[in-house]
């Protein structure tokens, strides 16, 4: 039994261009093979190979009953990233080999409470009727004897090995379970020996934008309680943070800001960075601190750095302009001088009018770029401007038990004559070692009529 390669062409996709080969097996079933790079190279690791079982509902219609569509996408992405690999789109595998209509019948049975295994059995059909000999023949035809298999299914590995293809490694595609397919995936893990996803810790789950479920340790519960509101806020969120002395200074008279608040507040700041798309700083902060604005104290993705700098006065050797870890948007005025040669991670945006630097205008500009979750990180002037403009959803103001006497001011804005006009909002307080972080929630209104049982530490800021 042998497969025949019928045609060679190419396929441009959102994951770049692949070579496309059309194969026909002896039974007349037509398979598609996408390849990238030097697949049969002798040196280095075996190529990444995905044997993707046809699934019309998942692959073409985007069904969430299974994870096939997302796995297909993740497999092409992985091959694109590696610059080398093969995806065999195996026809005739629909419904684990029982065919489309039988799969839909199995779905109907699952709608009445059967699981994916029992549904097939109830229909008098095998639980998994797939056969991998065509895939092995195609690989061999491509000169491949060894693969790194993109799959969670040990049976696929065993089937390939039985056909004489060596599996150097089985690599799980990183596709998250969904509400709609979690039962189906749980059954595959419990009854079909599929690999379970690696356990993610509570912080990593939050940093991925998800709320953890199940029982949590008290420390993890505190994390969820502290940061869950930022996830529940949805795609649009503007927060700010500032660390200052008890008498309201972020640095001494000479600009010495090392360190006003302690290690735990720094960790909190890095967590906030990991939970947003972009962090905004003023030019003064970049000049004074040469900040990196990346996530280092905890795990998480780095936000895009946004520097407000109308006169382009930050030094050209500063970290945000030289460190390529994450992009920097440098917001400058029309007349500002910027160097000709800049690192590719830096994008300069020239704002024509002074009003373009208003907080709401900057946020509008960032939202158009898809940066909708924003942290305003400093310094005192910038945070105060965003606060006074009324664009903040939350402010985290951490006070350290220090009295500086005189220095670089923290929050300052045009106040009111009467205390009754002072800015206030419902607050929560977090103790970070010797420091106290106060979270002002400007999205909630005073007075707090209904406090949830988990928010006993929340109290109105106005007395
Ligand atoms: N019979 C049946 N087939 C299903 C069901 N859900 C998905 N499928 C089919 O299952 C095939 C994919 O198999 P999966 O078990 O999802 O995954 P796998 O290919 O074994 O393993 P991975 O390599 O990790 O994707 C596709 O052909 C789908 O059409 C179902 O509830 N019943
Ligand atoms: Zn599917």
TrEMBL record:
First-tier enzyme category under EC: hydrolase
Residues at which Zn(2+) binds: 55, 66, 68
Entry annotated with the keyword Zinc: yes
Pfam families: GTP_cyclohydro2, RibD_C
Residues binding GTP, per UniProt: 50-54, 71, 94-96, 116, 151, 156
Reaction equation(s) it catalyzes: GTP + 4 H2O = 2,5-diamino-6-hydroxy-4-(5-phosphoribosylamino)-pyrimidine + formate + 2 phosphate + 3 H(+)
SUPFAM superfamilies in the record: Dihydrofolate reductase-like, RibA-like
Domain GTP cyclohydrolase II: 7-171
Record text on cofactor binding: Binds 1 zinc ion per subunit.
Gene3D superfamilies, alphabetized: Dihydrofolate Reductase, subunit A, GTP cyclohydrolase II
Positions of the catalytic residues: 128, 130
Keywords per UniProt: GTP-binding, Hydrolase, Metal-binding, Nucleotide-binding, Riboflavin biosynthesis, Zinc
EC number: 3.5.4.25
Pathway per the UniProt entry: Cofactor biosynthesis; riboflavin biosynthesis; 5-amino-6-(D-ribitylamino)uracil from GTP: step 1/4
Domain Bacterial bifunctional deaminase-reductase C-terminal span(s) in chain numbering: 238-409
Cofactor or coenzyme needed: Zn(2+)
Sequence similarity: Belongs to the GTP cyclohydrolase II family.
Protein name from the UniProt record: GTP cyclohydrolase-2
Organism: Paeniglutamicibacter antarcticus
Lineage: Bacteria, Bacillati, Actinomycetota, Actinomycetes, Micrococcales
């Amino acid at each position: 039994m042998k497969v025949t390669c019928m045609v060679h062409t190419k396929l441009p996709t959102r994951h770049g261009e692949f070579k496309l080969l059309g194969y026909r097996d002896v039974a007349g079933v037509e398979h598609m093979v996408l390849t990238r790079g030097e697949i049969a190279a002798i040196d280095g690791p075996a190529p990444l190979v995905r044997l993707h079982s046809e699934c019309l509902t998942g692959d073409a219609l985007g069904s969430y009953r299974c994870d096939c569509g997302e796995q297909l996408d993740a497999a092409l992405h992985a091959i694109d990233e590696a610059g080398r690999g093969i995806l065999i789109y195996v026809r005739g595998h629909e419904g684990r080999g029982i065919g489309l209509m039988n799969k839909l019948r199995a779905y109907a049975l699952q709608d009445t409470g059967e699981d994916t295994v029992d549904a097939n059995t109830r229909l008098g059909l095998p639980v998994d009727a797939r056969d991998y000999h065509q895939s092995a023949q195609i690989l061999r035809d491509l000169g491949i004897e060894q693969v790194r298999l993109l799959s969670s299914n040990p049976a696929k590995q065993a089937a390939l090995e039985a056909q004489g293809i060596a599996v150097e490694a089985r690599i799980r595609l990183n596709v998250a379970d969904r509400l709609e397919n979690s039962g189906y995936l749980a059954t595959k893990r419990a009854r079909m020996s599929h690999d379970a996803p690696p356990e993610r810790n509570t912080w990593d789950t939050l940093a991925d934008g998800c709320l953890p479920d199940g029982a949590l340790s008290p420390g993890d519960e505190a994390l969820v309680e502290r940061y869950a509101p930022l996830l529940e806020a949805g795609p649009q969120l503007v927060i700010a943070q500032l660390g200052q002395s008890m008498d309201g200074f972020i640095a001494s008279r000479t600009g010495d800001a090392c360190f006003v608040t302690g290690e735990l507040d720094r960790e909190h700041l890095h967590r906030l960075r990991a939970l947003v798309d972009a962090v905004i700083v003023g030019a003064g902060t970049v000049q004074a601190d040469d900040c990196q604005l990346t996530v280092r104290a905890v795990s998480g993705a780095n936000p895009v750095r946004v520097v407000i700098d109308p006169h382009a006065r930050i030094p050209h050797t500063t970290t945000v302009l030289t460190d390529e870890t994450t992009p920097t948007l440098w917001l400058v005025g029309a007349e500002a001088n910027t160097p000709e040669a800049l690192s590719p991670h830096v994008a300069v945006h020239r704002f024509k009018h002074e009003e373009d630097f208003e907080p709401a205008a900057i946020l509008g500009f960032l939202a158009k770029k898809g940066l909708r979750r924003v942290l305003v990180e400093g310094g005192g002037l910038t945070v105060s401007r965003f606060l006074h403009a009324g664009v903040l959803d939350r402010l985290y103001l951490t006070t350290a038990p220090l009295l500086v006497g005189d220095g670089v001011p923290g929050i300052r804005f045009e106040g009111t004559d009467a205390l009754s006009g002072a800015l206030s909002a419902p607050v929560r307080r977090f103790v970070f070692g010797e420091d106290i972080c106060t979270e002002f929630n400007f999205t909630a209104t005073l007075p707090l009529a209904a406090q949830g049982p988990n928010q006993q530490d929340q109290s109105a800021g106005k007395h």
